[in-house]
Amino acid sequence: MKALLEYMARNLVDNPEAVQIRERVGRYTVTYELTVAPDETGKVIGRSGRVAKSIRDLMSVAAARQNKRVHVDIE
Predict the structure, then answer these.
(1) Mind listing the pLDDT tens digit for each residue in 1-23?
(2) In sequence order, which residues have a C-beta less than 8 Å from that of residue 19 and are 6 or more positions away?
């Protein structure tokens, strides 16, 4: 799942080297903290949060296949 999030984030921004993902694993949940360059946060969030919602939806589907729940925090 981390690779999926990294793939999506790196293709959305102009500076893919600045993408960092931290993973915290719980018993049934996985939390990903996505950090991008400060001037490119808007590209990952999107207008009215549409891109962020789509990213979270895709990650939820990937997590459901592994019987887990996922949270994506964008910083």
Answers:
(1) 999 999 999 999 999 999 999 99
(2) 6, 9, 10, 13, 34, 35, 36
SS3 of the chain: CHHHHHHHHHHHCCCHHHCEEEEEECCCEEEEEEECCHHHHHHHHCHHHHHHHHHHHHHHHHHHCCCCEEEEEEC
Task: Say what percent of the chain tops pLDDT 90.
Answer: 92
Instruction: Categorise residue 64: left if φ over 0, alpha if ψ from -120 to 50, beta otherwise.
Output: alpha
Beta bridge partners of 22: 33
pTM (predicted TM-score)? 0.91
